[in-house]
Design goal:
The structure is a homodimer.
Chain A (H helix, E strand, L loop, with lengths): L4 E2 L9 H9 L19 H18 L5 E7 L2 H12 L5 E5 L2 H10 L5 E6 L23 E4 L1 E2 L4 E2 L15 E4 L16 E5 L9 E7 L16 H6 L9 H17 L1 H22 L3 E2 L11 E6 L5 H10 L2 E2 L10 E4 L6 H17 L1
Parallel strand pairs in A: 1-13, 3-4, 3-5, 5-8, 8-9
Antiparallel strand pairs in A: 2-10, 6-7, 9-10, 11-12, 12-14
């Protein structure tokens, strides 16, 4: 087997111990004689897996008891439509645009009601999160939507110990797809946190929604049962068949993370990984990152070759060296290293070594 | 490892060669150094998997070129809502109720427009598909919705060589979740065929939609891009991240089926399996199946113990004998053996042997 490091933005690298365990259990989960893929979602084996997975996530994020955790089909884009369906209730909603994904969230929400853009960095090319003093917040909005880490442009909300959030009296709804479990957060500051699984959680096809109790039951009458958070919460996410195998892998990832020391432990590693790469980029004349330092993402690190005529050669020899998926999102170009929880620091070091060598050769 | 036979209605048994191959490839797909779960959905490795999977499905079902094949997040219940969103266009729709799932489809569609029930067997407890002569079809309906095999009650549309369908000038939309790939069908007779994966295709979290070209582009303006079939068709099902690992497993299942001789070959086996179980039930005074003979499902075979006081003992010793998930759906009670493509005839024989023994002991 080739030793590679996979910098894909998602679906993304998974912890090797998780894959080894999934491999070992593929045909026979815990002596059941069944693969997890083959289990009825209502059988005791799978309901046990689901309960353990939820309990471990609650432990990892210290989720308060007045929050429900939903394990839903789809990803963050599906939930982009579910949010207004479940929360608007005839009101308007506030959205901040700090990158391509929060802009997409606005596009997906507009069909359901009036969306106010309270701040946007689109014209500056998404290089920072604007000062909260300038946000045009509406006190009567149903909610304020933010994306706390923008995967494409590598812009993260600032905060050394906890994310700094805008002051508002309305519930904050946060897309944390590419940030969840990478750093400690205070869940009680949010109304809703949602995350597609395929970055820090598990395989694509699962979206986790953490929602405060009092926000359930506000769904538009046209909301199909499968998309109604209250119906799903009342039925342990089983008003339909949930994505059982993705939930199982998520559970293995959570166990791996707990064994490692939980979110505070991985956060330290993530800071070290991000510093390693940013420090090298900043020290180099060959590469550049354009994001404001306080908003630099720890998970997704976009960078550009100052001479972009070398882009193709950079990607090709990176691939040959086993450093995969470094091409930036087609919307922004350049390069991007996504260094999620499962990326070991050795992978980041290998990337820095490669970047140094490439720079000195060109 | 315990040898078991898993009669779950879904998620359900998968072919053992498929699980063995998934196990072997778990950490390194074809020398890529990556698990399929870790691959970018836009990378050449995964797009190759998706293209091969679609091509193999087209081969297996002889899908005409004027049909698109979509690989979407979710399951049939998600699509229940997508169907009216994508097809109603201000018209009404006709629905036939022949079991719990087609009834559920009606419930999920009502929020979007006027639904006409053209036939229903609800009051008779879903024991047959009513004579088409009595269906109150509307020639101006946007479509006619049917569920060609009802998983809960084991009622299948009649037809020895091909399913017999009602005569209508409007597009037929068929939920084939628990029937697809189990028998030959003529795709050109349908406007839309859809199927949740977790019965005859692969893991839960994937829904396959086969849709005729001329039905694309009719979506309600409020349809989010992710749920708009035309947008998905124009973007190779990648307007969002598709459920990549479920698609990969589906691809392995399709390869297994092609190697076996395709749908005609598995259909012969399925007929033999169903006959084995129905013949035994019919020959017995201890068990009974209530479905009209011409509408008996080949995939889901519900049966009752004439003396239901033995139900618990039947299930417990079946479990002890490695015959799992035989409890009927909670809505209908009794027992149910789901014998999808991946259930070998040895499993059905083992069940019949067990039923004989249990009957003679009680």
């Amino acid at each position: 087997m080739t030793t590679i490091y996979n910098f894909s933005a998602g679906p993304a690298v998974l912890p090797k111990p998780v894959l080894l365990r999934a491999q070992a259990e593929m045909l026979d989960w815990h002596g059941s004689g069944m693969s997890v893929m083959e289990m009825s979602h209502r059988g005791q084996e799978f309901t046990g897996i689901l309960e353990k997975t939820e309990a471990d996530l609650r432990t990892l994020l210290s989720i308060p008891t007045n929050y429900k955790v939903l394990f839903l089909q789809g990803g963050a884009i599906t939930e982009n439509a579910m949010i207004p369906l479940n929360l608007l209730g005839g009101k308007t909603a506030d959205y901040a645009i700090t990158g391509g994904w929060s802009k997409r969230s606005v596009d997906d929400a507009r069909a359901y009601g009036t969306i106010n853009i309270v701040a946007s960095t689109e014209t500056d090319g998404y290089k920072h999160v604007p000062d909260y003093a300038g946000w045009k917040l509406n006190k009567d909005a149903a909610y304020l939507h933010i994306c706390t880490n923008e995967t494409m442009s590598g812009v993260e909300f600032a905060g050394e110990h906890d994310l700094e959030l805008p002051q508002t009296n309305v519930p904050i709804v946060a897309d944390m797809s590419s940030q969840i479990l990478s750093r400690t957060i205070d869940v009680s500051k949010y109304g809703v946190i949602y995350a597609g699984a395929q970055k820090n959680i598990g395989p694509a096809g699962l979206c986790i929604v953490i929602v405060r109790d009092d926000l359930l039951g506000r769904a538009n009458a046209q909301t199909p049962a499968v998309f109604n958070w209250k119906t799903q919460a009342d039925n342990q996410s089983m008003i339909n068949t949930p994505p059982t195998y993705s939930i199982y892998i998520a559970g293995l990832v959570f166990e791996w993370l707990i064994a490692l020391g939980g979110v505070p432990a991985i956060e330290k590693i993530n800071i070290a990984k991000a510093n390693l790469l940013y420090d090298y980029i900043d020290s180099s004349d060959f590469y550049v990152n354009h994001v404001a330092i306080k908003n630099r993402s720890r998970m997704n690190i976009p960078f550009y070759l100052r001479d972009e005529s070398h882009n193709e050669a950079f990607l090709k020899s990176a691939n040959d060296a086993g450093l995969l998926q470094l091409k930036g999102h087609r919307a922004v170009g350049g390069m991007r290293a996504s260094i999620y929880n499962a990326m070991p620091i050795e992978g980041v070091q290998a990337l820095v070594n490669y970047m140094q060598k490439f720079a000195s050769n060109h």
